[in-house]
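Quick one:
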Amino acid sequence: MEKAISAAEANRKFSQVLREVREGHSYVVTSHGKPVARIAPAEATHSEKAKDRLLRHLRSQPIRNIGRWTREELYER
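Output:
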């Protein structure tokens, strides 16, 4: 649900508004009683979603002990 907030009040309470937006709330900012802007949680970008999927996949994989590498093996040409 969106809450209406005046531009002046949004300016005075900006930190609080951002905390509430982070929690999922949305605001319609008004100027002289007319809506002029919306403050809402940002949606994750495609690359952020892909990164999250990759990290979830990697965390679900078992840890394998393959021993130590030598510098030569690591930088083999």
